[in-house]
Design goal:
The structure holds 2 protein chains of 2 kinds.
Chain A (H helix, E strand, L loop, with lengths): L16 H23 L5 H29 L14 H32 L4
Helix pairs in contact in A: 1-2, 1-3, 2-3
Chain B lengths: L4 H11 L14 H33 L6 H36 L5 E8 L2 E8 L2 E6 L1 E5 L4 E7 L4 E4 L6 E4 L5 E5 L5 E7 L11 E7 L1 H12 L4 H4 L2 H9 L29 E2 L4 E2 L2 H9 L1 H4 L13 H12 L3
Parallel strand pairs in B: 1-5, 4-10
Antiparallel strand pairs in B: 1-2, 2-3, 5-8, 6-7, 6-9, 9-10, 11-12
Helix pairs in contact in B: 2-3, 6-9, 7-9
Classes of the chains: A mainly alpha, B alpha+beta.
């Protein structure tokens, strides 16, 4: 039997990935700031730059997922059209829609996680 | 309609928080003013959003359904339920962080260590001539920024002088830093804001904001040993030593050098006793010595209910002479 790729058509994993990216970004940002400040307790700049690079990577990853999700949903906005049927196509659209909304939410969450490291110069 | 009595009482109890000594709206510190500057826009914004939501709800329930509602409803959900909250939350986060940054970036002229203990405050001033020990009262010079190094020896406490600035946890094994820049002289109230055991509610302190010159004179006086007039009270002093007070309390210039309880070298120069509980007076000091656990349930200091009246007179006179 062939196992589907993690975000293959029909796989529900596409809705797990954006929150997962946010969670990993949050953990990494927290660890970097905590370890850096425990060891250095001075300038935050190097830690801030690492967090900014991680943030850019996370946003790129989320936007790639978002693009896949938008293709499945059939565009970014489709007002008035519901995915309420029980066909493969409806399922694909529905998962695409959910994943797209999650991408928007998690992109905002990732940016909010990064804001403090940009605003503070010292630990 | 008459409002039931208990509701009035609850409202009056709530207003007690507006008492100036403990009010963060008193504007007594630069840091408190920063927080106040944040509070009013937050409050006005929250009221505006709440009112708008209520108005929308009333309109939605009262009007007759129409064909175009679906499209309008979707737009409201997208903009009112998605975009607007995201923008508002981001704005709140950024303004909150800006306030925090402004509060954290003041260079300080004085460093004071505050160690929280169950249930009192050890206060140590850093001066060029060495450390000056005190307790339960923090004196600060007007208009100067003081760096407070906050820590704890037992459980988690929290330092809060609402009229002057923010609130910060005091965690065993960690030193948290906080600055206070008083802009109004006076006596301000402070308290422990993290439940820390039986006498948590009686763990208070006073912050006395003084003119810089007066503060400098006071700090010199505070660094001196006990007043000679007190040390001449031999009977009171020997009672203080013999009754065991010296095992926990220090009075510099005598053999009393206990470190478990507050330093009492200049007790009579403070405004309050029992960690901010009672005003300093002869009567309150007697009550404190004889009924300690009644005044402050859970306190580590034992009561001396059976102390002979003459001994109590002598020991109280000695303590009241520690200026």
């Amino acid at each position: 039997m062939r196992y589907p790729r993690i975000i293959d058509d029909g796989s529900v994993w596409i809705v797990i990935v954006p929150p997962l990216i946010w969670a990993l970004h949050f953990l990494a940002a927290y660890w970097i700031a905590a370890v850096w400040c425990a060891r250095e307790a001075g300038s935050l700049t190097p830690a801030a730059w690492s967090i900014i690079v991680l943030t850019i990577l996370a946003l790129v990853a989320i936007s790639l997922i978002g693009r896949v999700a938008a293709v499945r949903y059939g565009g970014f906005t489709r007002p008035g059209r519901e995915s309420a049927g029980d066909t493969q196509a409806d399922r694909r659209q529905f998962l695409g829609h959910v994943a797209l909304l999650l991408c928007v939410l998690n992109a905002a969450a990732v940016m909010m996680t990064a804001i403090p490291s940009v605003m503070f110069g010292r630990c | 309609m008459r409002m039931p009595k208990h509701i009035w009482l609850a409202l009056v109890g709530g207003l007690a928080g507006c008492d100036g000594r403990h009010s963060w709206l008193a504007g007594a510190g630069a840091e408190a003013r920063l927080i106040e500057d944040l509070f009013w826009p937050f409050l006005i914004g929250a009221v505006a959003i709440w009112t708008a939501v209520m108005v929308f709800a009333v309109i939605a329930f009262r009007r007759r359904p129409k064909g175009s509602d679906e499209r309008i409803g979707r737009a409201i959900i997208l903009w009112g339920g998605g975009v607007l909250p995201a923008v508002v939350v981001a704005a709140l986060l950024i303004t909150g962080l800006l306030t925090l940054r402004a509060m954290a970036s003041r260079p300080s002229a004085l460093t004071v260590h505050v160690d929280a203990e169950q249930w009192w405050w050890r206060v140590i001033y850093e001066t060029p001539d060495g450390k000056v020990f005190s307790a339960n009262e923090i004196r600060l010079p007007l208009g100067k920024t003081t760096l407070l190094m906050l820590t704890s020896d037992d459980v988690i406490h929290s330092f809060w002088a609402p009229a002057l600035g923010g609130k910060l946890d005091m965690i065993p094994g960690r030193t948290n830093r906080m600055t206070l820049t008083p802009v109004r002289t006076g006596r301000w109230g402070g308290l422990c804001a993290e439940f820390c055991g039986a006498a948590h509610a009686q763990m208070r302190f006073e912050v006395v904001v003084m003119e810089p010159d007066a503060f400098r004179d006071w700090l010199v006086a505070e660094s001196e040993p006990a007043a000679p007039s007190a040390l001449r009270m031999e009977r009171g002093l020997s009672l203080f030593l013999d009754e065991g007070c010296a095992a926990c309390h220090t009075v510099r210039g005598t053999q009393a050098n206990g470190r478990v309880g507050p330093d009492l070298t200049h007790l009579a120069a403070r405004g309050r006793i029992g960690a901010g509980l009672l005003a300093l007076s002869d009567a309150n000091l007697r009550r404190w010595i004889t009924h300690t656990t009644d005044v402050k349930p859970g306190v580590r200091m034992p009561s001396y209910p059976a102390m002979p009246p003459d001994d109590l007179d002598q020991i109280t006179q000695f303590l009241m002479a520690l200026e």
